[in-house]
Amino acid sequence: MAGGVTGGADGTWSDRFEQGLHPFIEVFNASIGFDLTLLQEDLDGSIAHARMLGSCGVISIEEAEQLVQGLETIRSEAHAGTFQPGLADEDVHFAVERRLIALLGPVGKKLHTGRSRNDQVGTDLRLWLRRRLDELEGDLQRLQRALVSQADLHRRTMIPGYTHLQRAQPLCLAHHLLAYVEMLERDRLRLQDVRSRVNICPLGAAALAGTPVPINRQQTAKALGFDAIYANSLDAVSDRDFCVEFSAAASLVMAHLSRLAEEVIAWASEEFRFVRLSDRCATGSSLMPQKKNPDVPELVRGKCGRVFGHLQGLLTMIKGLPLAYNKDFQEDKEALFDAFRTTRDCIEAMAILFEEGLEFRTERLNTAVEQDFSNATDVADYLVAKGVPFREAYQLVGAVVRRCLDEGCLLRDLSLSAWQELHPAFEADLHDALAPQAVVAARRSEGGTGFDRVDEQLGRWLQHLNGTQPVG
């Protein structure tokens, strides 16, 4: 659209157009401000397309090589900072083509043979997301390693376990942390699954109906590392399911990070005092000098809304679109780019937090599990082991807890004679069985918080994250 002219030899559009766009509409219509993010992918796709055109005889081998060299020149210019397209280029695809024509003359005009910007942008976007998914896998494993390292340090540290945010049963702290490692593994596998559907090539579908040019779609797909090509040209240019799938998977990552962030925020409070925040990952107050604020987990918790919002926006964008391509699809990129950046940054921030930003207060945690009735279930289990029916034991212990609350004491404070007055099955080993260490150690069922089971799980994860054993 140089000089405000839409059509003509230097314009984006054909000579069907006689007037340039209104200046505001030109800005409103352009995507160059954000889709320049796809430059490297656009160059990769164009190089594969040029080589395919040459091998199919659509253009000469010499012309194909000229196009490849010209595209690599643009790549070098981009790395050097000298390729700086502006508003007149409208989008990254036309910016590349326009510069290629400036470099090569008429040969540059042959690059777009047999393709449309519709299949071109779809290809670029898939190439970009495929690379980002591979990066996220490494990021998630970094956070998993940070959590496993903390768990390894706290194999015998205990922490109160909660249901309904009420004290429930004591847990091994390592077991608690490994629950998040498991969540992140599901996230990692979900992203791998998304990648399998991202990795299908739309190039060669052209605008919507394919092309009469004798191209080889399988060749370009293979050259670009795609697993397959779209079987239907209409579907190829109009599919944005993969954007929605990624945003949904990223939303679950963010939900898991937010749950972990919320726990850290609570643990760092004076009411819990389960962790100390290091100066590396906390800030102070401009008014209250004693404050140390958990900014990292608070920001992670807050940024969930951005990623959730992008998911909703993408679903709304596609819900009423007729086949095939529509300009609405321009709205997929900013949402996708920001969803990725936000998710990646939050994963890294949480990894740093657990690597060097907090310290668990072991003594405080081990003391905390002794100050409640979270061993009440173990009294019932003790009676069951002695042959008492569970429901009878359950009712009896409930009555004991009520008595202790009335008297202001804990279960451990009751004498053996007091217990035996309640039921003759209680013996001298009761108080040992009610100790928090014994309560945790007794949870030996597979997947439970028993120390031996946690050691097994930690061993499995340490091997997996070192690449020596799959999780299973």
- Let me know the largest β-sheet: 2 strands, antiparallel
Any idea what the radius of gyration is? 31 Å
Termini Cα gap: 57 Å
The averaged pLDDT comes out at 93
Q: Given the helix and strand composition, which structural class is it?
A: mainly alpha
Lateral arrangement of strands in the main beta sheet: 1-2
Q: Can you give keywords for this protein?
A:
single chain, 472 residues, two-stranded parallel sheet, 6 strands, elongated, disordered N terminus
Report a brief summary of the structure.
The chain has about 475 residues and is mainly α. The protein contains 19 helices and six strands.
Characterization of the model:
The chain has 472 residues and is mainly α. It is 60% helix and 5% strand. It contains 19 helices and 6 strands. The protein has a two-stranded antiparallel ribbon with strand order 1-2. The chain has a two-stranded parallel ribbon with strand order 3-4. Helix 6 runs parallel beside helix 12 (331-357). The longest helix is centred in the N-terminal third of the chain and has 37 residues, at 117-153. Mean pLDDT is 93; it is low at 1-10.
